[in-house]
Amino acid sequence: MAFILKSSDLKDGEKMPNGQVFNGMGYEGDNLSPQLSWENPPVGTKSFAITCYDPDAPTGSGWWHWGVANLPASISALPTGAGSGKGGLPASAVQTRTDFGKAGYGGAAPPEGEHHRYQFTVYALDVDQLDVSEESSGAYLGFNLHFHTLGKASLTVIYS
């Protein structure tokens, strides 16, 4: 069976709801990380990490909206708002710095008139923990994920 990522807040290929949109930069969203759940991770999975990335940001390098690592292999879901300080992250979890400049979830906030994709990905990892901190950038998290990923599952939503 395939490793899959699902959400009760997001529908793959559809518009991101206001609950997950940024509150600031001209937007008035709720800025809540979405509920996410995953099934059928690869054999040997020791932990998980999750990212949200916007490849369409006008930066030349995209935009990291969320990174969380060191989720134990014993969990298979996060509740709405877990990355927004609403509870639900395990004690071992580490949220990394986003391109908003701080750790934690930062919702969609594309420039006016632009259509962007937001890729949520869960990574099954071959280590219990990655050596990352709240100061680690999305690129640094991605570098560590590259060397420890057994499998990944994604869903993409859009916002404009």
How is this structure best described in words?
The protein has 160 residues and is mainly beta. The chain contains one helix and ten strands; from the N terminus they run βββββββββαβ. The strands form three sheets. A five-stranded antiparallel sheet has the order 8-6-5-9-10. A hairpin with an 8-residue loop joins β5 and β6 (63-72). The longest helix is centred in the last third of the chain and has 11 residues, at 138-148. The chain is globular and about 45 Å long. The termini are far apart.
Radius of gyration: 14 Å
Number of helices: 1
If you average the pLDDT, what whole number results? 98
Low-confidence stretches: none
Helix content: under 10%
List keywords for this structure.
160 residues; mainly beta; five-stranded antiparallel sheet; three-stranded antiparallel sheet; 1 helix; 10 strands; PEBP; protein kinase inhibitor activity
Give a summary of the structure in a few sentences.
With 160 residues, the protein is mostly beta strands. It has one helix at 138-148; strands spanning 4-6, 23-24, 27-28, 36-39, 47-54, 63-72, 77-78, 94-95, 116-125, 149-159.
Sequence-ordered SSE layout with sheet pairings:
Blueprint: E1 4-6, E2 23-24, E3 27-28, E4 36-39, E5 47-54, E6 63-72, E7 77-78, E8 94-95, E9 116-125, H1 138-148, E10 149-159
Antiparallel strand pairs: 1-4, 2-3, 4-7, 5-6, 5-9, 6-8, 9-10
